[in-house]
Design a protein that fits this description.
108 residues; Nucleoid-associated protein; plastid; rod-shaped; chloroplast; 4 helices; YbaB-like_sf
Length: 108
């Protein structure tokens, strides 16, 4: 029984170390999102923190309401890409640790 306990403790440590590694990778990664026509580019980190927003002169000429919509569209695109990358990395982590398929699906 003691061996089982030690094995479980070691497995927990491996999972924690690998999860921290993946989180650090994601925090350092950047994901660009664009609005239609690529008039605006929003960059988010892998943990969905805003990094920068680039707005073209052409976007500025569209007026504040349209500009707001385009910024939101670009932000949503960057967010979706960042979340998808996180899901893929967490799923890969679960698979590399030999977690059952159903359990790794829960990480998405």
């Amino acid at each position: 029984m003691q061996n089982l306990y030690e094995t479980v403790k070691k497995a927990q440590m491996v999972v924690q170390v690998e999860a921290v590694r993946v989180q650090k990778e994601l925090a350092a990664a950047e994901f660009d999102g664009y609005c239609e026509g690529e008039l605006i580019k929003v960059t988010l980190s892998g943990n969905q923190q805003p990094v920068r927003t680039e707005i073209t002169e052409a976007a500025m000429e569209l007026g504040p309401e349209k500009l707001s919509l385009l910024v939101t569209e670009a932000y949503k695109d960057a967010h979706q890409k960042s979340v998808q990358a996180m899901k893929e990395r967490m799923s890969n982590l679960a698979q590399s640790l030999g977690m059952p398929q159903g359990l790794s699906e829960g990480l998405k």
